[in-house]
Amino acid sequence: MSDTVLELRDVTRRFEVSQGAFRGSAMLTAVSHVSLQVRRGEVFALVGESGSGKSTLAKMLLGLLPPSSGEILIDNAPLSRRNRVAVARRIQPIFQDPYSSLNPRKSIAQLVALPLVVHGVGDRASRRAKVLEMLDMVGLPRRLLDAYPGQLSGGQRQRVAIARALVMRPEVVICDEPTSALDVSVQAQILNLLLELKRELGLTYFFISHNLAVVEHLADRVAVMYLGRIVEERSRAGLFAGPRHPYTRALLDSVLTPDPELGLPDTQIGAMMANPMSDDSGCPFAPRCPSAMDICRTTAPPVRTLSDGWATCHLNQEQEEALSAS
Amino acid sequence: MSETIPAIVEPPAAASEADVLAAAPPRGAWLRGFLRRSVGHGGLMLGGGILLIIVVLALAAPLIAPHDPYHQDLAQRLIPPIWHAHGTWNHVLGTDKLGRDYFSRLLYGAQISLLIGALTVVIAGTIGTLLGVCAGYFGGRVDAVLSYIVTTRLALPVVLVALALAVFVGGSLQGVILVLGLLLWDRFAVVTRSATKQVAQADYVAAARAIGCSTPRILFSEILPNIFNALIVVATLEMAHAILLEAALSFLGLGVQPPLPSWGLMIAEGKQYMFFSPWVIGIPATALVFLVLAINLVGDGLRDVSAPENRN
Amino acid sequence: MALLDVQNLVVDIPTQRGVFHAVRDISFTLERGETLAIVGESGSGKSLTSLALMNLLPKLMKRKAARLTFDGNDLLDMPERGMRKLRGDCMAMIFQEPMTSLNPAYTIGDQLTEALRCHRSVSASAARDRAVQLLERVGIAAADRRLKQYPHQLSGGLRQRVMIAMALMCSPDLIIADEPTTALDVTIQAQILRLLADLKKEFGMAMILISHDLGVVARVADKVAVMYAGSVVESGPVRPVFNAPSHPYTRGLLSCIPVPGRTAPGAPLGAIPGQLPNLIGWLEGCTFRDRCAFAAPECAGEIPTAEPEPGHEVRCVRLPALAGAA
Q1: Secondary structure class of B103 (helix, strand, coil)
Q2: pLDDT in tens, A262-297
Q3: Cβ of B5 and C47 within 8 Å?
Q4: Global pTM value
Q5: C105 touches chain A (CB under 8 A)
Q6: Which residues pair with C225 in a beta bridge?
Q7: A99 and chain B: CB distance < 8 Å anywhere?
């Protein structure tokens, strides 16, 4: 068994966007030349804000959307339309909004059993036993078996979604902001459950989030995405100790810990977004970057390899370290 | 904490955990809630009551009809109904120009109206839903082509085309059902298309695809149950529509043919006598109004009672 | 005299099964220039509290209070006409979702000047000048041009800035901000919060911040009120409340959130077991006792308010026992 369970090779996804009746359409690059390797048994976190392309990337990993170019490999076998059903056994999603991710017309038993039915696993009785086992595993009382999603709280629904994702014992779980729609006390319970299940079942998580505190809590490696591009990919410890890309630094500065002694941070970044439609060659973060230089607007930044990952920025090492230290 | 609480907390910033309060009620709670809301809905109860009476009377027609609806007795022509000075208990609602018992004909006519309404809705509903769901789910070119077909159909005046087709196939019960079924699917298609578009956005459809569900399974098991509310409402409205159209076609002589006791036909046959014997038109017309009203009330009521936002 | 004085505020919602006590017996005062944060999870009644202050509750809800004064005016007996004069003029509100609180059919300029022109007899050009000035103040470049744009043409961050400018148009004495940054990206959130804090200082306004985010609250507020199931369980100046949280619910909430550098990565987070209690009907004792690890028989009785430090009020009878456990 190889160490890499999920690999993206130069994956790009473009969308055609209509610009109004008479102006034709433009190309929006949602995901641009992304290459990643997810190792078996790790929690790989993808951090980005709205519009960064992280949800598009998740859809491609789940086979719901084909890449415009590039390749996605699962256990070194390329993902394609043909093997989608087979791949479904190995990659499963947990979505952000548990109010939208469960069919309101199906009972909890039907929802959790659906993957078993689709893949023709077991008979009625064995499927029911399996569903009960899953409910126990995610900490849902068995009496909810015949309840409908409308009767459950948000936290309970997310547990159902987790049970459904894990009933086929997938290798990789794509968690797309699984706790951001939940209250903090429920979020803690779900995060604890996810970590516990990972240890128990040896799962690999591809964890998408905008909440760096959560990412710091459970990730092993972190990739930071900005406007469709990965700008930094590091080990968790390395990234949080010394971010190299100015955007990563701004993200880290923006984390508001419940500490009344610290005031509001000054992230020193602008609010101007680069136009995702234009495909100019410079750094996508240049319009907001406090350390932007002329070269940033014209030339794509080089990839700098670090001991625990890489970052892509025009700043040289001394400049970066000086900024990190300040 | 066995009690549950309605999700009425924090309405403006209704955060997603608002129904953390909802402890799980026991099995069958949804059905009970549905019934409770139904009983509380005046319009639904009234419409359902009238409809139930009409359906029971229609089904029991052979048992309760006092006479053979086709039996002519020219000696007993145009007897007025019982409330009239010259009415007789032998013919409660009087007789028509050929001396047939009007009450019996009304009962058998209800059978025909309900049969036409139901079968038309089945045929039109199947066609319209299939087109609408496909257009809404697949989108893109499929949507463009199917929407073009729907638009074409919407450009055709129903009554005119029904008349032309009726002339072509000849008036008959089967002919009317077929013509109406093939014409009245437009609203099904339009409504299911937009409902499907909305439902297809939901994460549970993405989840089903990620599980590996086949497209037909997604359409039938994930999407159809969730657009059912909308379908039921359209179905009732179209049923009423079909019953009225049948009456119109029969009135014009291009629908159900004599001696079948269609309500529209009864009105048509009575029209020469309406000044001297107004009941020959009044009775079937009243029955028609009640049936259509009842069906519409039921449709409206079902929409109110089963709307997802009404469910806890 | 305090700008806002709220004593024993109650919001009741009649339901088929009895009265739902959504807000129970809340008291606080707010001085000019102060920021009070009301923090709680969904269902705590924090948003209803803010609506009750503005008298914007849905019709079927009943508001009661022993005292409710704003700048010396009694709000309890004030007719709707008087309230309308106050709202927008002296007290303004900022909502969570700027897209739904801005009318998509009118330009930014129309909406900005509307409040000013209906509360003060100001000429169109004077109102426009003020709008431009405020838009520039909230950090919107080319304000002149923005006035002619429609809400959908602006990004989420810009829309929230417009909402803030709109709330400031009549220089209100009090701003109620209900989750003002929840819908925004993290890097934008810090900027908007700083902006609010600066403006508050500059205009000498008081602010009530409604939030579920303990991080935001700790960094922004002067005073905090922690709400649970309709009542305030702990309140006081931010520092003692966050540095020495005393109520078991406050402690639970703070232990739920991962904090980079403080919580050990991968270690289980604190959790608050159970669910919100039923708030219909007669309620007695502490509503948190079913979920509390320190619950004792006396929790079902009358709960006095303890004051471990001046101004820091805690509604818990088990404080002495808790002090030992901390």
Answers
A1: helix
A2: 888 877 776 665 666 665 678 888 888 888 888 888
A3: no
A4: 0.83
A5: no
A6: C38, C235
A7: yes
